[in-house]
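From the pipeline queue, job 12 of 40. The input is one protein chain; the requested action is below.

Action: predict structure.
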Amino acid sequence: MDSQTQASYRPTLLEMRERLMRSVNLLEEGLRENVVTPGDTTNLPTHPGDANVEGLDAQIEVAQNEERLLEQVEAALERVEAGNFGNCQDCGREISRERLDAVPYARLCIECARKHDRERPS
């Protein structure tokens, strides 16, 4: 993939990074509000089995997912800067434009991504 085509994905990736950073910050702020200093009275459940009732587990999972996506977007921006964006990190072949248009932070071509999905334990 030529450098001009690689650079054409940069604005999309920057926009995604900005959105994800805002999302992660808001989620983390919400989680911090649920945490109180020792000695304070709290409505948070004390038994680990009760934590999901308050939705805390779901909030943590969403925050972790957004952070993982943010890391992938930042890695894609680094690949743009390094000039190797759009090349599969497993086989070295060019990742299709259709895949990059759908998942601009993709690091694997569709064939290698499918192979990784099959090999991943369920």
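Job complete. Residues 34 and 40 are 12 Å apart (CA to CA).
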